[in-house]
Every structure is written in C-alpha cells, then in structure tokens.
Design goal:
With about 350 residues, this protein is an alpha+beta fold. It is about 20% helix and about 30% strand. The protein binds pyridoxal-5'-phosphate.
C-alpha cells in the first residue's frame, strides 16, 4: 500500500502490505544468505510441512519512532533468542542471532516510510516467520525451511487502547497443556484460540483468560498477552511452567516494578478465585502488541469482578508510563533495552 494513503493516526491491528521483506532459505543443512525482496507471495509445495502439520513459528516485535526522532527496537535480541527456542521445540533450524538482528534492522530501514509518527502512538510491527516449506508425508520434520521477516504499521491491539478491557475466564477452553508447546511461539498454538476468542467477543469480552489445563484453576495467560495482578500490594504473575509464552514485556514489567517502583513481585500459581477477593486490587495484561492493557473486569459464568470502577489502576498507569517512556526514549533507559535501528 502507498504509505501516503495510510492514516497513521487511526490504525488498528490489521494487515497492511509494506514495500519489502527479508527472505532466507534453509536447504541441504544450511541457510542461504538472506536478502531483501519486494513483499509478495511465494510458491509452496502442497506437501509442505507447515501446510500439513503446522511446522511453523513466528515472532512479534515493534520498531518505534522515539521522542527525539530515532528509530528504535525494544530488546530485539530477546526475540531472536525466543525464536530459536521455538525453533528447537518444533525441530526446526535455528537462525544466527546477529543475522536476525541485522535482518530486522534492514527490514525496518527499507520500510521506514511506514513507521507511524511518534505522536500517533503507533508502531511498525515486525513479523519474523519461519515455515517448513519442504514436502513431507509422514509426521516428521521437513528438510527445507523459509524465513521471512515482514512489517505492518499498527495502532493499538485492543480497540479500547489504554482503556480497560473486560475479560472472560474460561473453564471450557484451554490453550496449552503440560509437556506441550505453550512456551513456543508456534503457529499451531494460535489456530485453536480463534473459536474461543470469537465466542467470547460475541458475548462482549475482549478476550479469554485461559486457565491451566490440568486443574482448570490457575491462570495461564490472556489469549495473546501475559497476565498480571496486584494482590496484597504485590505484583503477581503466573510462573513460567512451559505452558505460557515467556513474554518480553512480562520480563520487562517485572524488572520495572522491582527497580523503579520498589514493588515486591511474585511469579507463582494464581488461582482465578483470587481475582474475586478484595485483596486483588488491579489486573492488567502485557505484550508487544497489547503493551500494558488494563483489565476492567473479569467474569466467570454469572460472577463478575470489576476492578477500580473499570478504570486503569494506579500501579498499572505507573508501569505503563515507565515502560512506554523507556521504549520511546522519553525517560532514561537505564537497563539498556532500547536499540537504535
Ligand atoms: C500467547 C502470548 N502470550 C504472551 C505474549 C506477550 O509476549 P511479548 O511480551 O514478548 O510480546 C504473546 C505475544 O505477543 C503471546 O502470543
């Protein structure tokens, strides 16, 4: 799409085609030298591993225009590392971290007319994806893979923006089971979440809070974001047990809460029942796309708990201001998280 035709001040989280993508191919046991190509389709065998058995992984990151006009990435090496952790779980080849970072920077530079301006609050979403394009018949890893990195200009993930969202706790659907692939960012974790998301949206909720698959009691995560709650004044988030995506925003928020707000943090099992107690005063979710999104209420069947009259809580707001301030170079980046493109 012609960047001149994009209304950067009213973007949602929808696909928009940009100019170029990065492509590298894995054949005969090694990666080709990656290169930039015009964005567009490619041929794929109907026997491709990704089409038949879902052998595919992806990442999600953002390039932002900082307050001073710099183009910046947030902790991109963490995405490179997680991409490789996902690859290992899916028996796919890993990709050199330095090359990943260079490729991401190249894609951003080449598509820089699509980066929403600082004052719009938008970002250039970066989507690295790796698929098994080699043919297979039995359920086994393919011999050939394709890595693509493309970009899309985006606004807020939830149309509510920084306004609080209403969530439904599901005791019907689960997302990931112990020993499965919940910690990996693999395509096959996401397709099964579309039906529950559609059903909950039809009831007026923004997303589902998934509980653990064994006991249907402890919170795992929120669709495509990690979950946090302030309980007895401490910032609590579900511990990583292999069923939850280890969010980079999650890790950053824990650090900011400890170091900048002096809060005690806990990574532990959080029963959904705790959300209905007075001791739980705020809740929010985090992610590259969701940033920090306040949770206004949670509902399980007929029982509803509203937090803070449906307004963002005090700690949620503080964490949002600190995180986005660091990301946009409005405040000092004392942790060394922001990387210039
Ligand atoms: C299932 C899931 N949980 C959590 C997150 C948040 O992770 P991050 O903060 O690294 O974007 C994501 C991705 O954005 C996700 O897909």
């Amino acid at each position: 799409m012609d960047p001149g035709k994009i209304d950067f001040y009213n973007l949602g989280f929808n696909f928009i085609e940009t100019k170029e993508m990065y492509v590298a191919d894995y054949k005969n046991g090694s990666w080709s030298k990656g290169k930039m190509e015009p964005f567009g389709p490619f041929e794929i065998s109907p026997g491709a591993g990704v089409l038949n058995y879902g052998q595919g992984i992806f990442e999600g990151m953002k390039a932002l225009e900082a307050k001073n006009g710099d183009l910046v990435l947030f902790r991109p090496v963490e995405n490179a590392k997680r991409f490789n952790e996902s690859a290992k779980r899916m028996l796919m080849p890993t990709y050199d971290e330095d090359e990943f970072l260079n490729a991401v920077k190249n894609v951003v530079k080449t598509n820089k007319e699509y980066i929403p301006p600082y004052d719009s609050g938008g970002a250039l979403y970066i989507r690295p994806v790796m698929v098994a394009n080699g043919p297979v018949l039995g359920v086994a890893p393919a011999d050939e893979y394709k890595l693509i990195i493309f970009t899309v200009p985006v606004g807020p993930y939830f149309p509510e923006g920084f306004n609080a969202i209403d969530l439904e706790i599901s005791r019907e659907y689960t997302r990931a089971a112990p020993g499965g692939s919940g910690f990996a960012k693999t395509c096959c974790n996401y397709a099964p979440t579309m039906k529950p998301a559609k059903e909950t949206k039809a009831k007026g909720y923004a997303q589902i809070i998934y509980l653990d698959a064994s006991e249907l009691e402890y919170i795992d995560e929120v669709g495509t974001a990690n979950f946090f709650a302030v309980i007895e004044g401490k910032l609590a988030t579900p511990q990583l047990k292999g069923t939850i995506l280890p969010g980079i925003t999650r890790k950053s928020v824990l650090k900011i809460a400890e170091e900048k707000l002096g809060m005690e943090t806990e990574e532990r099992d959080i029963s959904y029942k705790e959300l209905f107690n007075k001791s739980c005063s705020e809740a929010f979710c985090t992610g590259t796309a969701a940033v920090i999104t306040p949770i206004g209420s949670v509902t399980l069947n007929e029982e509803k708990r509203v937090f803070n009259d449906g307004e963002p809580g005090e700690i949620t707001v503080k964490l949002y201001d600190l995180l986005t301030g660091i990301q946009r170079k409005e405040i000092e980046d004392e942790f060394g998280w922001v990387v210039d493109v």
